[in-house]
Amino acid sequence: MSLIRPFAALRPLPKYSEDVVAPPYDVLNTAEAKQRAQGRPYSFLHISKPEIDLPDGTDPFAPEVYAKGAENLQKLVDEKILFREDSPCYYLYRLIMGEHEQTGLVAVGSVADYDTNRIRKHEFTRPDKEDDRVRQIDALNAQTGPVFLTYRHNETVDAIVKKVTSGQSEYDLTADDGVQHTLWVVNDKQDIETLTATFDAMDCLYIADGHHRSAAGSRVSAMRKESGQAVTAADYFLSVIFPDNQMKILDYNRVIKDLNGLTEQQFLDAIATSFSVETSQQAVAPAAPNEFGMYLNKQWYKLTINQDLIPGTSDPVGRLDVSLLQNHLISPLLGIENPRVDKRIDFVGGIRGLAELEKRVNSGEMAVAFSLYATSLHDLMAVADANEVMPPKSTWFEPKLADGLVSHVLDDHGC
Length: 415
Description:
Elements: E1 4-5, E2 10-12, H1 17-20, H2 30-37, H3 45-48, H4 63-78, E3 82-84, E4 90-97, E5 100-110, H5 111-115, E6 119-120, H6 127-140, E7 142-143, E8 147-151, H7 155-165, E9 171-174, E10 180-186, H8 189-200, E11 205-209, H9 211-226, E12 236-243, E13 249-250, E14 252-256, H10 264-271, E15 275-280, E16 291-296, E17 299-305, H11 321-334, E18 345-349, H12 354-362, E19 368-372, H13 377-385, E20 396-397, E21 408-409
Parallel strand pairs: 6-11, 8-12
Antiparallel strand pairs: 1-5, 2-3, 4-5, 4-10, 5-12, 7-21, 8-11, 9-10, 13-20, 14-18, 14-19, 15-17, 16-17, 16-19
Helix pairs in contact: 4-6, 6-9
């Protein structure tokens, strides 16, 4: 079994692509999804967030929700909004957000290689979120949300990407958020064989985003094997694989509800034992690793951690800025031992900007905010290679992959 392989995608007819494409299921709540899908009967939100088509107050994890998603998917197939590719293909998917551009390969990745950590992880998953994805995949008999993977860039892959993307695209559309999504079909037999062999020669792939989707893919595969099925399409999961030199990771910032009983001056004095503290007349976006911004009582500060507190390269997790802030400030001073579950801390993706941190503090909702330097892809790979996991909310990837452009049906047609 190869690391990746082509597949016969379920996808929209080109004339319906703009009507179908939707944001990822996990970036909108039910109310937002309902509003976005209003007047758009072909929106993929009817499949990824099917509770919007059931009575208000319906539990989004109720069995009837997954059944409704399957019904809505079949309806788009029956109405010939979506069609199935005749034979297995790869696809190239380009995202453009402002000045940033990245082009990835749409493929299906091996569950067996995920299970043996050749497709490497860097985050824990939550059982409830895994369960949700398992039920969704099983009900639809399809994977509709791709896993976001990355690899160390490769000249052979680059050459095929350059050749294919110089030709006519299948879809080229701009979503509501201004991100451009372009898709090409790779159906040349030699290109398909070369891509499969080139990726199979790689040591590993890395999960950037989509740990719950990949874990759910593994569980569905195991479930179907236990039921007596032979090797099937369920032994692979839908993926978009981007080269490391095109990836964009944004900062993932922190806001805290209170100062853990400390006065403002006591808090500042305590910070100064582990960090240098400088006031700033403007919002602080850290310019380098080991620097942090702090917003407290309408004042910005620049914090720089003492160098003797930074572990060596043998501790790839402890060296992360998110770990340094957690271990030397948030935990000992603010009393938040487990940021994964503590309700006194919240996380703000860098796409929202520093103004969002000021807003959360100025409103009185939060007492203090911290801005961080973005985790590097090198650091992510180092953690994954060490078979370790990052602290929660360490990376924020942009731009996001859309739902609805390609889905992977779990039958043996075109596998």
